[in-house]
Amino acid sequence: MTVYAVAWLTASVSAVLVAALLFFAFRRWGSWRHLAAGLVLAWSLTPCRFDGEHWAPAFIVATFRLLFEDAADPTVPLALLGAATAAVFAVHLVAKGIRALAAARRTDDR
């Protein structure tokens, strides 16, 4: 296993652990805890090419390009993060809608 694969495996495992921690620690948030966990996973695991041959999580590439690299363009990683955020929000809203419809149907059946 290469160092590159170990780095992605470490990032994946840590993202899952942080998402699970958020999910279980904030039970009072209700269904919003699903959104928080989904955003952690999306932001941590969205890949972005940072040079000709290597990929890294988009939030890391965006952070380095915004804060540490002079004259670097953070447009691509920020666009990827925006798209991932929009996708997570869309899935969350669809799931909330389906749950609301199912709850309304259950009350109608009684």
Question: Key features?
Answer:
75% helix; two-stranded antiparallel ribbon; 2 strands; mainly alpha; 5% strand; 110 residues; 4 helices
Rg (CA only): 18 Å
Q: State the end-to-end CA separation.
A: 57 Å
**What structural category do the secondary elements indicate?**
mainly alpha
What kind of sheet is the major sheet? 2 strands, antiparallel
Overall body shape: elongated
Number of helices: 4
Strands side by side in the biggest sheet = 1-2
Low-confidence stretches: none
The residue-averaged pLDDT reads: 91
- Output the helix-strand order: HHEEHH
Helical amount: over 70%
Tell me the β content. Answer: 5-15%
Strands, total number: 2
List the helices and strands and how they pair.
Blueprint: H1 3-25, H2 32-45, E1 47-49, E2 55-57, H3 58-68, H4 75-109
Antiparallel strand pairs: 1-2
Helix pairs in contact: 1-2, 2-4, 3-4
